[in-house]
Design brief:
With 152 residues, this protein is an all-alpha fold. It has nine helices and no strands.
């Protein structure tokens, strides 16, 4: 994923997940910026400051790409859907959705969207699922607007 896609994914997560991400914010409501040792412990280059949330997302995306190589071949919008789901349910949980994984690998977008819809995960966050289903189905993210998250 490109840096711009990580920025969009961070904004998407903040809008859709909301209070579930509280641990990534400081008392002033700004995203916490990582320290160099944290990035290095996560196996990331410390060439520029990033938020803890983005660093964690990058770790999840690396794991997805290692365990599901087809994900790296997706368009950016669908990569963000897969990354969002893996961040929320864990990479192992995502890979357990066998029909979803197969549909994504074969670019059967309608089937992949239906697999999200019928998943237990979707019942735990209907708004989140509706957003990601539409993104998976269409390959567009126009319906969620991209705002820049604040950092300290």
């Amino acid at each position: 994923m490109e840096d711009l896609d990580y920025t969009k994914l961070v904004g998407q997560l903040i809008r859709v997940e909301g209070p579930k991400l509280a641990r990534y914010f400081n008392a002033d409501g700004n995203l916490i910026v990582t320290e160099k040792p944290y990035l290095e412990s996560e196996g990331q280059n410390a060439y520029k400051p990033v938020t803890v949330l983005e660093a964690d997302l990058r770790r999840v995306v690396r794991e997805i790409e290692d365990r599901l190589p087809a994900a790296a071949l997706l368009d950016p919008v669908r990569q963000r859907v897969v990354a969002h789901m893996a961040f929320s349910m864990g990479v192992t949980g995502l890979l357990a959705m066998i029909r979803f994984v197969a549909a994504v690998a074969f670019h059967f977008w309608e089937t992949a969207a239906q697999e999200i819809l019928i998943s237990q995960w979707a019942t735990e966050g209907k708004r989140r699922a509706a957003t990601l289903i539409e993104m998976m189905r269409t390959g567009h993210d126009d319906q969620i607007g991209v705002a820049q998250p604040r950092t300290a």
